[in-house]
Every structure is written in structure tokens, then in C-alpha cells.
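User: Hey, quick favor. My workstation is busy. Could you predict this chain's structure for me?
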Amino acid sequence: MTNLELRYSDLHDNYLVPCTNLLREHVAGKFLTTKFIDRVSARAKSVESFLGKATKELEDGSAKYKDPFEQIQDLIGVRIVVFYPQTVVVIDDIIDSYYTSYEESEKHPESSQEFGYEGKHFLLKIPAETLPDNVPTDFPECFELQIKTLFQHAFSEATHDLVYKPGSTIASDQQKRAAYAAASAWGADQVLQQLVEELLPDYPSKEA
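Assistant: No problem, here it is.
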């Protein structure tokens, strides 16, 4: 076992996992009265996943991360899955009220003529009340929060290791089928959003 693996294993088991559990409860607690949330989940990046990312090399053979504990910012990840696209707007406002944001981004294909991974990502400061006692100096300051609709979540989960796994190569017809699945997910979200606007004209609302 390398020094990097030993160091991260200790951080993972003794600090990241306890913080992740508290953080999931903390985030979920902010949305107790918010409509149309399916689930709030959280995970600490596994040792295997961390090592795979931390030891990546650039094309010239140099290390991608000189300090992976500092540069890899998703050691703790929280995900909120919602029913409708409009719910993302509601959650966005609540996040701004309760958390310090370092970064915020919309993930979507580069071209409007393409279909693929979509979601809202935040890089947020970890609240002090969720930190374990005596955290080491290499403990992260932030966590990644993702917000996805049910269909965005289903597409990303189903295709992550099939299509988007690093280093994977798929044929043209397979790419088209994956794009078709993404387009179907996008279309389902659009139809549901239209129904929300027609049947729930007063939505969004932060209160149940």
C-alpha cells in the first residue's frame, strides 16, 4: 500500500465518511418544506476512485495533480434529485441563502444540436457544524453539490460506465444510441415542465 493510499484511507474512514453523513442530513434539513424533491444522497469518494483520479497523467507523462488533496474538489459529493426542472430554480435560491458558494456551473453539451450529460453543479463551503473533531490539515474546505432531475439522474447513472468512463471508446452507432437516450431524457423533462406550468401556475414555491 502506497503512502498516498494510506493517507487517503485514513482521511476517508475517520473524517470524510462521518462528515459526509452529517452533511447529507444538513443539506436535507434545508429542504424539508420544499416540494418535488425525490431524494438527497451523499458519498465520500472511495479510495479506489481517489487513487484513479489522483494518479492521472497528462499527455507528456507528468502528473495531472501535484497536490491531489488540494486540487481534487469532489472528495465529498452531495446530490439532490428533483421531479421537475423548475425545482432546480427553487433549490438554487435556497442554497444561496444557506451556503457559501465558491463555484456554480450548468453542465450541458457544448452544442445546442447535441444531447448528453446535464445538471447543475455547485462547489460549496463545508459548514462548520458538519466537520468532525480535530480534522487534519488536508481535509477539504468544500464539497460538490449536484442537482439533477429524475431523468437527468437516470441517464447519467445508466451511461456513466458505458459511455463516459475515462478511456472508453465506443462506435458511432453506439454514440447515436446514447445521444438518443439523452434526447429522450431531455424531452421528458420539457414535457413535465410544460405540465407544471399549465397545472401548477403558482409554482415555484419554497413552501409545501
